[in-house]
Predict the structure.
Amino acid sequence: MGAKRLSELMAERGFVLSDRAVQYYLRYLDDMGFTEKVGNMGRILTDYGISETESALVGDRIGFIISKLERLAFRSTFSPGTMTGDVAYNLSIVPKDRIDEVREIYDRVIAARCGFFSSYRILDSDPRVPSGHTGIMTICSITMDGIFQRKGIPVRMAFGGRLSLKNNEPERFTDLIGYRGTTIDPLQLFISAGLTSLSDVVTSGSGIALANVREVPASAEEKVKETIDQMQGCGFVFPVMMGTKVFNLAYNPYRLSIVSFSGMNFIAITVEKGIPIKTEIGAGNVPFSKIMSVN
Amino acid sequence: MIEEYLMNLPLKFVNNTIEDYAMQVTYNPREGTGTVVYNMSIVRNEDLEYSISVFKDAYRAGICVSGLVRFFKSGEKLSGYCVPDGHTAIITMCSSTLDGILLRKGVPLNPIGGGVVEIERRIPRRFTHIIMYEYTTIDPLQVLISQEITSITDVMRKGSGNILANIRQCHMEAETLIGEVMDDLAGSSFSGILDVGLPNTPALGVKVDPQYMGIVAVGGTNPMAAIKEGGIHVTTQAIKGLMDVKTMTEILDY
């Protein structure tokens, strides 16, 4: 990346700096070891630079996880009516020799209707998958936000939560973390803190699963229901519950809360089983037909 | 009926819990008397000795809220909870005790959040992650304890790494009172102040409201996170209850 191009890209994002100024700061970043020059091709971020982007300016990073995902929502062109267009996906990477185990537990999550979508795709050859590993694409639930927005329904991702189930019936939330008040993904926090029990959910129907809470205007209820019906016909599994007062969420007469299981339940159960898994949430957009059927 | 009512109550966000407990704190740092807020951690009996030694190291490294501790054996009860067989409960001071001390002094205060602070050669540099209390129903430090982003052991051994911390903001009008509290704490069992920010200035990178100043304290769960980094299974519940400080003893005596 060269200084001139960088200056243009920054201006597109609302940070207006002259080429000169950008050049000055790039030299400063070189001195700090965050960037390095590659011949006359421009600069790249060093590993140290990448880790700095994950640590610096904590105040500016609050709520960034969801703003970043909203970009993928906007690019999700999927139309449930025609079952065509792109959806957003998560990419997980697991060791190749454990893929059979992973497929088995993924299928169990789907059978228990605790996923967001009833299918996934195995990726063998993808430049992002290191050798000796297998990639798995699952639909990211941010796709839903994209579909709603295209229908003119304003939607806001509110919480990631732990939903407790008893005898296959969702009962209540045990914890909530709001997307706009954290620098780390709420559901990832719950997974690595060992606060899920998907294995129990898929075997006995009782346990803790991960769910998201979205809010839309209460006046959009009809339109939302219509959209959800269409999406269910395409293989989407939601909502768990919908209303102005659902489970133990606060009552708000003007906002409809849509509770749905998260695609992260696949990742949670894999972690519970002690299988190493690396996941990029919102890895990109892909045509719906590529994820449609279990292969 | 009552049970059903409680089940359907909206979930409580942590800012409410902190204020509820902080209001009940009667700890007087000069006298060393009164009640403090505690965290409870559960370890297996066979891991207790190791846990105590890590706790001591963490305390010497200055990353504990306090060296005060109390142990409950399996079968013993505290506020309705019975310690399970083969386990020991470790009671440590919670940093929301500080919010209580400030409140009692009459300092206008809002708890902001908990997160991870980067330490470089023993000097706190900045928050690298934060979870705001108003947005969570689980204590941030309870979920962050298990993230790979902490490196408390490194801070203890080499002086650099990432520890758990929390931040509250106080009105700058009360700066004199805050100064008095800091003086009182200097000679007390509470040793967890990490940074006191300037008015209208972010504290370790976290913004404060206009006319407010931030106060950063180390997280009470740091020693437990260090024990966990050593591969020991430990479960922690933060902001668990209130305890008379006189019933707690110094970790270095064990």
Q: What stands out?
A: Chain A has a mean pLDDT of 91. Chain A touches chain B through 29 residues (CB under 8 Å).
